[in-house]
Design goal:
single chain; alpha+beta; eight-stranded mixed beta sheet; globular; Ribosomal_N-acetyltransferase; GNAT family N-acetyltransferase; protein N-terminal-serine acetyltransferase activity
C-alpha cells in the first residue's frame, strides 16, 4: 500500500480530534487527558495547520486517512533550531509499517524544505513499537531522558532519537 502525506482538510478535523482527544483513538502512549475540542479548528482556520514553526500532515494509506505526523521548531541556540516530530497512527492502521514510512517521508520533507540539520523524535521508554519504527526509519537512538514525560499520573522516562542531514544523504 502506498503511504503519502497531505495537508489537513477541514473534513479531517474530527479525525484529528479522535486521535488526540478520544482515549480509544489515542492509544496507550498518547492519552494526556481531554483538551479544548476546538483547538484544531482554530489552528486550521488560522493557517491550515501549517506554519513557520511547525505543522501537521495527514498520513494517507492509499485513499484512507491513517494518522498524522506533526513537527515543531525547537531552538538549539540563539539563531539555530531543529525540528521535533511525532505521529499518531489510527488504531486500525497500527502495526503495518505505515508510521515508519510516514516518518521517512516527513524527514525527507523537512530536510528538502528547510535548512535545518537535525530532526528529532522521542517516545516513552516502554513504547517498543515506536522505538522500532524510528530505528527502521533511519533514526539513531541517542539516550534515555529520565523523568521527561508526565502521563497517567506518573513521571516517565523517554528515549531520544535523531537524524541529521548527513544521515539521510548517506542512505540516498
Amino acid at each position: 500500500m502506498t503511504i503519502s502525506l497531505r495537508p489537513v482538510k477541514e473534513d479531517d478535523l474530527p479525525f484529528l480530534y479522535r486521535l488526540t482527544d478520544d482515549p480509544a483513538g489515542t492509544g496507550d502512549f498518547q492519552w494526556y487527558g481531554f483538551h479544548n475540542p476546538h483547538r484544531h479548528r482554530r489552528r486550521w482556520e488560522e493557517n491550515g495547520l501549517l506554519g513557520d514553526d511547525g505543522g501537521i500532515l495527514i498520513i494517507m494509506a492509499g485513499d484512507d486517512a491513517a494518522g498524522f505526523v506533526s513537527w515543531h521548531k525547537e531552538m538549539s541556540g540563539a539563531t539555530l533550531f531543529h525540528w521535533d516530530m511525532g505521529l499518531i497512527v489510527a488504531p486500525e492502521f497500527r502495526g503495518k509499517g505505515h508510521g515508519t514510512e510516514a516518518q521517512r517521508l516527513l524527514v525527507r520533507y523537512l530536510f528538502d524544505h528547510s535548512t535545518v540539520n537535525r530532526v528529532q523524535a522521542s517516545t516513552e521508554i516502554t513504547n517498543l513499537a515506536e522505538q522500532r519504527a524510528l530505528e527502521k526509519a533511519g533514526f539513531t537512538r541517542e539516550g534515555v531522558l529520565r523523568g521527561a514525560g508526565f502521563r497517567a499520573g506518573e513521571w516517565r522516562d523517554g528515549v531520544l532519537y535523531s537524524m541529521v542531514r548527513a544521515d539521510l544523504e548517506e542512505r540516498g
